[in-house]
């Protein structure tokens, strides 16, 4: 699909969804007036992150006092089935991230309520739900429709049916989804951010999510090297954070 075709299909998709008009307005501003916002402070934060990054295994051990090796063994069949579903999916989205980090954050907090932003195939959702199902917990997910790819039917594609009973999926932009989620549940044990990559989008969401994280809860943000929002947020709130390097990218994680 050419870039022009993708943009045109996205715009038409927005026009068909009046409930997404607020996000369309924000997108237009982000891609015109605030075009450089996505990469604000990127060099500064990549240098900062590189100087303190540890492996996923080290982070889970340091923060949660847990070993990660059992995850792949215990869920070998589930993960293999999910990988096969991704392989045959006709729509391409983001692949699996640091699944062990997410899973053991839920185990450490004995999570019953988790919120995530960004779903795609549902790899992070799968890791979360594998823990939550032990405690009849609930995952609340915010995910924008895939307007240019006709991919809505494949959102959460790798999550097996037996785990979906504890999953509530909100198909709007974060600024519409999160208030709806917080109306249903106020306090969360784990927060996982993986949606709007812009500096302003992150700063807004980080502030909102942090308010709803319980003391002792775990905050995780993917792709923190895109700009300096995560670093700036942590410094503003005097947060000591761990940085995880995973497949050439940086993830931020801390316990409140």
From TrEMBL:
Gene3D superfamilies from the UniProt entry: Vaccinia Virus protein VP39 (3.40.50.150)
Protein name: Class I SAM-dependent methyltransferase
Domain of life of the organism encoding this protein: Bacteria
Keyword Transferase attached: yes
InterPro entries: SAM-dependent_MTases_sf
GO terms for MF: methyltransferase activity
Pfam families recorded: Methyltransf_24
Keywords: Methyltransferase, Transferase
Any Gene Ontology biological process: methylation
């Amino acid at each position: 699909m050419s870039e022009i075709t993708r943009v045109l299909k996205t715009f038409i998709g927005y026009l068909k969804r009046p409930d997404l008009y607020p996000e369309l307005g924000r997108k237009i501003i982000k891609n015109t007036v605030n075009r450089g916002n996505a990469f604000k402070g990127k060099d500064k934060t990549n240098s900062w992150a590189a100087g303190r990054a540890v492996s996923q295994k080290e982070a889970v051990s340091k923060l949660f006092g847990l070993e990660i090796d059992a995850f792949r063994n215990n869920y070998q069949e589930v993960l293999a089935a999910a990988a096969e579903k991704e392989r045959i999916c006709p729509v391409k989205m983001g692949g699996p991230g640091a699944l062990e980090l997410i899973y053991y954050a839920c185990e450490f907090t004995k999570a019953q309520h988790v919120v995530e932003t960004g779903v795609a195939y549902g790899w992070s959702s799968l890791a979360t739900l594998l823990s939550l199902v032990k405690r009849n917990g609930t995952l609340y997910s915010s995910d924008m429709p895939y307007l240019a790819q006709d991919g809505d039917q494949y959102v959460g594609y790798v999550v097996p049916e037996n785990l979906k009973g504890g999953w509530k999926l909100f198909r709007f932009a974060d600024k519409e989804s999160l208030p709806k989620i917080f109306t249903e549940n106020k306090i969360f044990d784990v927060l996982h951010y993986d949606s709007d990559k812009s500096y302003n989008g992150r700063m807004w969401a980080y502030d909102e999510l942090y308010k709803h994280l319980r003391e002792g809860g775990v905050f995780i943000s993917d792709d923190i090297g895109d700009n300096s929002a995560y670093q700036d947020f942590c410094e503003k709130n005097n947060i000591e954070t761990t940085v995880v390097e995973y497949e050439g990218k940086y993830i931020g994680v801390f316990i409140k």
